[in-house]
Amino acid sequence: MDLLARAIELKPELVHYATSGRFARELTAVLDRFYAEAQADEAAAFLPVDYFTHQHRLPGGDTVIDRFVGDRPDLDDADRELVLSWKDVVEGVFEVRQGEDGGAVLLFNLVDELAYLTRSNLGDDAFDALAPGMFVVGRLVPLGGDWLISGTPSVHTAEARATLVPVAAHIAMDNPAVVFRNPEALARAWELQAEHRRCFITYFGADLVVLPGADVRERMSGYLDYQYERLGGHRPSFAVPEHVREADTVALIYDADEGLGYYAEFGRLAEVFERPELVAKGLCRDLVTAYLKGDAVSPVPLVRLATRDPGKAGEVFARLLGRAGFRWERSGEALLRTHKPGRSDAPRLPSVIPMTAAIKEHLG
Q1: pLDDT tens digits along 133-175
Q2: How far apart are CA 141 and CA 122, in angstroms?
Q3: Coil, strand or helix at 97
Q4: What whole-number distance in Å separates Cα of residue 306 and Cα of residue 301?
Q5: CA geometry: angle 320, 323, 326, nearest 5 deg
Q6: Judging by DSSP bridges, how do beta strands 146-156 and 115-119 pair with one another?
Q7: Cβ contacts of residue 311 below 8 Å, gap of 6+?
Q8: Count of Cβ atoms closer than 10 Å to residue 178 Cβ
Q9: What contacts 24+ positions apart, CB below 8 Å, involve 233-238?
């Protein structure tokens, strides 16, 4: 049996499994969040049930697809590989580049600027209404070397382009990882990040600078003006979070891998790594704990401070964790993996987004 025929059988079984009631609490939470956040634009076409089925992380960290495969010992290796591949979802605004041909249509994604030869599990006539120049807003999953429509897409005439280009641009800017499916875009983004970092170092004198929180907005504005004059492109807008503005000190670190980050109360954190006995104090202890265990906090500042003096870093964490003999050189990396698993497991991606055609058209 070919892959499409098997997908036609397995796809409805997977959706039924996801909506059968065994995940009622988790699905309800996703639906509530979706309908609370959904905007009146085409991004709402990315249906929440399809997202829940393919991508949502359950409390154990796995997905509905993982549970489905685990509960189906009757699936052979080919079936398991096919279904597990459906966790790799492509969302986008797709322009029809050629008409239906042998049950497939070529869709060009304005988000990642890649073409996808796409099939449907609804039969050979599923694409009869499509013509070159029209648009499909929706989601695709792998089908071997081709792709399969997932969920219910929305279809638009060519005249909808002016409305849909901003949608594609916002998808790209809100979630740069989708752009980086394109290896050319990924390579260009790393180049841009390196250029921006060199510009930052030239302007500030180093890739790490510590400022009063109240000065961050003015200094960053000056830096972005300087970057725009040197490199051109689009001058990015930026907002300084309130907790950063109100901090006594803030470190701006332009890391080669993680890009530019703001780190509040860095001065006090650095003092703890100079005088490890301070970690016994409440505020200092809370600060180091927040940097270590905060899900959204990059490990970069801890690594930078530990690199300055690994011996003192080991003493800080020995005192913090109650682990006498803790040594940063031996156990620091494992410590960060434990408390920041999402960052250590995820592929490293640049923080700079290259200017795709949709973003350029949207920004003018």
Answers
A1: 999 999 999 999 999 999 888 899 999 999 999 999 999 988 8
A2: 15
A3: strand
A4: 8
A5: 95
A6: parallel
A7: 328
A8: 19
A9: 233/355, 234/355, 234/363
Which residue is listed with tokens 């434990």?
A: 338
In this prediction, residue 235 carries a pLDDT of: 81
The amino acid occupying position 74 is D
State the amino acid at position 327 in one-letter form.
R
Q: For the chain, what is the mean pLDDT? A: 90
Contact residues for 238 (Cβ-Cβ < 8 A; gap 6+):
220, 221, 224
Closest CA relative to residue 340, chosen from 303, 312, 315: 303
Half-sphere exposure of 192 (CA within 13 A, CB side): 17
For residues 197 and 180, give the distance between their C-alpha atoms in angstroms, rounded to a whole number: 20
Tokens encoding 142: 């792998």
End-to-end CA distance of the chain: 49
pLDDT tens sequence across 222-236: 999 999 999 887 787
Q: What is the pLDDT of residue 42?
A: 43
